[in-house]
Design brief:
Layout: E1 3-8, H1 15-24, E2 29-33, H2 35-39, H3 41-49, E3 54-58, H4 60-72, E4 77-81, H5 84-93, E5 102-105, E6 115-118, E7 121-123, H6 125-136, E8 140-144, E9 150-153, H7 154-157
Length: 164
């Protein structure tokens, strides 16, 4: 399997991603998909230097062009987006099948209009709609900064956003 872990994390690549989660889900490299980060040379370089592994920071368009190569690779990658909306674009809108059926939601900072679900895990309505679509596409959506700090599945929180 070329994708060993699927995560939404507003910090994308950092110590928890590169060390702790890599113990749970071994990988050879990281792929972060975010238009703004990929277009910013300083931010892109910072993300790449945060990991000792092969690290790619791609725009959504670059992802579309290269995702089949990821699937065909013998290497294992983490697939990371900064927000649930981008992950929905990949998994639901583009129909990308990573071979996994679990999406882990990591840090999502408090913002105006967000609802706090747990420590450093707050989402806005648009993100909730994306998570609902991901779940309806057959994925299990788990909220966990770290595996041992999981706060629950999307089904536990979806009622707060008007879903039945």
């Amino acid at each position: 399997m070329s994708v060993s872990f699927v995560r939404v994390d507003d910090r994308m690549i950092h110590g928890q991603t590169c060390t702790r989660w890599a113990l749970e889900y071994p990988c050879d490299g990281l792929i972060a998909v975010n238009d703004l980060a990929a277009a910013n040379p300083v931010l892109k370089a910072a993300y790449k230097s945060a990991s000792g592994k092969k690290t790619f920071v791609w725009t959504m368009e670059e992802w579309k062009e290269k995702c089949q190569k990821v699937l065909d690779s013998k290497d294992r990658y983490f697939l990371i987006t900064k927000n649930p909306v981008d992950m929905k674009k990949i998994l639901v809108d583009q129909g990308f099948d990573p071979g996994l059926k679990t999406v882990i939601i990591g840090p999502c900072n408090d913002r105006p209009g967000s609802i706090k679900l747990g420590n450093n895990q707050s989402i806005v309505q648009e993100e909730a709609e994306a998570l609902e679509d991901i779940m309806k596409a057959g994925y299990r959506v788990e909220f966990a900064l770290l595996k041992e700090e999981a706060i629950g599945n999307w089904t536990k929180f979806r009622g707060q956003f008007g879903f039945q």
